[in-house]
Input
Amino acid sequence: QVQLVESGGGLVQAGGSLRLSCAASGRTDSNYAMGWFRQAPGKEREFVVVISWSGGTTYYADSVKGRFIITRANAKNTVYLQMNSLKPEDTAVYYCAARDLVSTSSYDYHYWGQGTQVTVSS
Output
């Protein structure tokens, strides 16, 4: 089992920045790809970005490409999501998730964090 805990959410004005973190614990000896998803009120959970265990492969949703950056520090079992030029439409609960291989589908992920709220005011 892998436990994931997100942090770093909050309230920010449009154009501002936030950095989310996702710390993994438990069975972290396996090589996991890590993804970020988000869910706004009344909407389905949507893919944001994913990074392979090595960090060599990343995929971004078009809506965040050029504004968000995902990185990971495997020695710390932590993944980061730097969010810049935030827009009101980025407002959502952000979840990190882990699985063995890179995927952009939330249905493929085995482990999920509890989520962290990001609110962008206009």
